[in-house]
Design brief:
With 212 residues, the chain is α/β, with parallel strands linked by helices. It has nine helices and seven strands. Helix 3 (69-75) links the parallel strand 2 (58-64) and strand 3. Helix 1 (3-24) packs parallel to helix 4 and helix 2 (40-53) packs across helix 9 (201-211).
Length: 212
């Protein structure tokens, strides 16, 4: 018996069930992927008020190995949030999301952001039941970060290159990152951002609204 394959197959089935529940409630769900410090929480913080201005109701799931730092940041937005600590696991899984959905007011949501655990490898094998996956990377991770992690980019519909304001200071080549992203994931929609100053957020929110 291949235990690994059984685990992945069970997760996929659970993810399909999650997606069915979310579709029943007409909730658009995004799995936000990226390393620690890439800007996952900041993306949710910046995008949520703009979505609310458009009349959308937003919820979130904060995934971390431990603690509630990101959860508290999202909670301050005044939206429904569930905190998940995975312990030793370097990714969320569909079963954890199933239980998170039980704690959210699904009848009162239009968008749900799932902030996955900060990791560029582990989450790739564990779909959660989201409609789309979004990957965010920072120039501070090095301009070779994309080609070092091709699989995760290939699973995403949108790729965000964050902290572009720091590129010159640390000698990172943003154009190189863009070229690598287009090479490993030709159909990905790329956005360059400086989330601290709000650069790229309107483009991101417009993209979500168009796909709703």
């Amino acid at each position: 018996m291949d235990v690994g394959k059984d685990i992945l197959a069970a997760n996929r089935k659970e993810a399909e069930r999650n997606l069915a529940v979310l579709n029943q409630h007409d909730i658009r769900v995004y799995d936000i992927l990226g390393a620690i410090g890439s800007g996952k929480t900041a993306l949710i913080e910046k995008a949520t008020p703009l979505l609310q201005e458009r009349g959308y109701r937003v919820g979130a799931v904060a995934g971390d190995v431990a603690g509630e730092d990101d959860y508290l940041r999202m909670k301050r937005l005044g939206i429904p949030v569930v905190n998940i600590n995975t312990g030793k696991e370097c990714h969320l899984d569909a079963h954890l999301i199933h239980h998170a959905l039980e704690q959210l007011p699904l009848n009162n949501l239009d968008f749900l952001f799932i902030e996955n655990v900060g990791n560029m490898v582990c989450p790739a094998d564990f779909p959660l039941g989201a409609h789309e996956r979004i990957i965010i990377v920072s120039v501070t991770e090095g301009d070779d970060v994309v080609r070092k992690h091709p699989m995760i980019f290939q699973q995403c519909t949108t790729g965000i290159i964050n902290k572009i304001d720091l590129a010159d200071a640390i000698g990172a080549d943003v154009k190189r990152m863009e070229a690598d992203m287009k090479r490993v994931a030709p159909s990905i929609h790329m956005i360059k951002s400086d989330l601290k100053r709000g650069v790229g957020v309107s483009e991101f929110v417009g993209l979500l609204a168009d796909r709703k």
